[in-house]
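Posting for a labmate who doesn't have an account.
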Amino acid sequence: MPMNVCMLHQRTISRGLIFRTLAVVVALVGIGQLRAQPLDTLAARMRGIPVDSLIAREAAATDPRVKCAAIARLVSQYLFLGRPEDCMKAAIRGLEAAEPTGNDTLIGRAHFGIGGAFTQLNEVNGALKHFNIAFERFQHAGDSLGMGAVCKETAIVYQRAGDTEGTLRYMRKAQAYGLSEGIYGRSMSILARCHMERGDLDSALYYARKADVLKVPGNDPYGYANFQLTLAVVHAARGENDLAEPYFKRALAVADSAEVPEPLINAAAGYAKLLIGQGRGSEALVWARKGFGSTEHLRQPGFLVKSTTALSDAFGANGMTDSALVYSKLAHAWRDSLTALQNRSQLQNQLFTQELKDREEAKLRAEELAARSHNIQFGIIALIVITLGIFLLIFSRTAVVGAKAIKNLSLIALLLFFEFINLLVHPVLGEITHHSPLLMLLCMAAIAGLLIPLHHRMEKLITNMLVSKNNRVRLEAARRTIEELEARPTDTNAS
């Protein structure tokens, strides 16, 4: 499956002229609506919507934009529920629905969903490839918030691989591109955990407090539980158990009632550790069992290590040594599996980073060659225009060339000159307008309104000047000829 998914973006779908026109109109009209709902905002709004309802919305949709929006919410719901296989299937359907539209925002979201599914499946290479495609699509669409969301998710991939520096690097990129309201809290939470892993607990607390953006669970119990958990973990790391416990309780209550496995496992393990340290072994065992039970929905090595370790420690704190030993062995086995997975992930990260570097270098070389080729072509065109202008000056002083020929050559030379100006101005306009078709059209119309009258005036002025010069030359030549003819009979009579 991964190979098939990675090949999806390489497919080219043919579209007719009418469809392309409609796609452009849709993009111009609907792009504001598409960008008005950042990725995490879509995710937050669909919390609590049953999967069956989202599937029904997808099936009933005939408009590609509506269908893609329904699938995007379904993908987010599957990620929320810890169902990466279903998420992958839905994201592929989203890509198939988005590609015919040619809309970069919709296609970017589809690849974003595929990358998220790969992340939960611990397929680092697949996740990074599709996040990279999503980033390029959002970049082409001018969607800075989408680019920030991709960088944030890429940071999570590096975080799961145990690469703290890589995580911080991509989080800095996410902040530079901008963070939507829905992404902000999650980003601050990631930064808090990164600084905690580096031993910088003051910075960790600073970012943990900034992550606390949701005062009530609302439609985003996942986010609320995670933010409360971040504060709990940081306070516990600082030895502030009295401050940590209320945050653990709030995170556990919301995650348990909403049946959100990821924060529930993490919070249960952290709270059990805190309770064991306070001599409350029986309470710790209750929550350790609760966390371990949630691993059925999220059977990933990292979560299994946390839950089995917590359960082993809780059994030990209650004097149940046999059970503690069993789960200790399980934790050790899963820890070995996690270490192997992280090593593989780090290797994949390195390989993909090198691949991106090679790709960027190849892109730069291609751009340099293209720029050189363009400069050569511009030089040739300029030389042609200048040469044609010189020929006009020469021809205007030649009696052999008539006025009609000079007028035609003047027309061609001026057309080439003004079109050359348009050619030079076009890339500048593209940068200024960010390649917006509507703005480009307005600017080109304004330029044409200025250049056309100027072209006509210059054509008339230059043509008249050259024709007048040519007429004088022709008259002078005719006068000399007449003089020569008149002089011949006189010479004959004199001899």
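Reply:
Got it, the structure tokens are right above this. The chain is about 85% helix and 0% strand.
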